[in-house]
Amino acid sequence: MSAPRAPRAWQRMLSGRRLDLLDPSPLDIEIEDIAHGLARVARWNGQTSGEQIFSVAQHSVLVELIARRQAEVAGVELDRRWRLAMLLHDAPEYVVGDMISPFKAVLGGDYKGVEARLLAAVSLRFGLPAQWPAVLVKKVKAADRASAFLEATRLAGFKVDEARRFFGTPFPLDPAVEREHLSPWSAGEAKARFLARFTELASIPLHDPSAGGPP
């Protein structure tokens, strides 16, 4: 009697790459696959207003923008690697989807382990450290929470006081910038704008003095 076949733990991407969720290789990661997937993954389980979903790709562009604005207020300029990390902070969701925080808490360590391995592989693929330094993680979380506050109150039906309890003090954006980045984009536009920002960040030389030093 033959042994039971092990369950499939890889996903085939449109690029043709086959990504192993248990042991992801940076060589199997393509930015086009990430952008395509994230542009079709809904934030807030799709419970947002508007005809289009508010995608993880759009959220990622907003987080990177907020991180830059937060740094400017603090009188510093983020190194382009850290700006790239902001854009890619939710990259694992192109494979595993966007689990809402309450469900992540239910799943616990198994989900977090898969997510961490995927993020490490993505990071290595694009020149970031596999393990992000604590100062970078802190900045990512601050920008992510600020983005979540705006999304929650503008799109997901949260009252301001309720959003403050979950996401902290809001970070103000110019009204025109806020309208542009919180009006849900189509999947095609979200993918294009995510890729455009990635290309812009990736084109900045690593040691360009104008990019600023690490935070």
Average pLDDT, all residues: 89
**In this structure, how is the largest beta sheet organized?**
2 strands, antiparallel
Q: Globular, elongated, flat, extended or rod-shaped: what is the shape? A: globular
Strand portion, in percent?
under 5%
Order of helices and strands: EEHHHHHHHHHH
Oligomeric state of this protein: single chain
Strand order of the largest sheet: 1-2
Residue stretches low in confidence (pLDDT < 50, at least 5 long) are 207-213
How many β-strand stretches?
Answer: 2
**How far apart are the termini?**
59 Å
Using the CA coordinates, give the radius of gyration.
Answer: 18 Å
Structural class: mainly alpha
Helical amount: 40-55%
Organism: Ancylobacter defluvii
Domain HD: 52-103
InterPro entries: HD_domain
Keywords: Hydrolase
Quickly describe the structure.
The protein is mainly alpha-helical and 215 residues long.
How would you sum up this structure, described in words?
The radius of gyration is 18 Å and the shape is globular. The protein has helices at residues 31-38, 56-73, 80-88, 93-96, 101-107, 109-125, 134-154, 160-167, 175-182, 187-202; strands at 10-12, 18-20. The relative contact order is 0.18. It has a two-stranded antiparallel ribbon with strand order 1-2. With 215 residues, the protein is an all-alpha fold. The protein is 54% helix and 3% strand. It has ten helices and two strands. The longest helix is centred in the last third of the chain and has 21 residues, at 134-154. Helix 2 crosses helix 10 (187-202) and helix 7 (134-154) runs antiparallel to helix 8. GO terms for molecular function: hydrolase activity. Residues 52-103 form the HD domain. It comes from Ancylobacter defluvii. Pfam families: HD_3 (PF13023). This is Hydrolase.
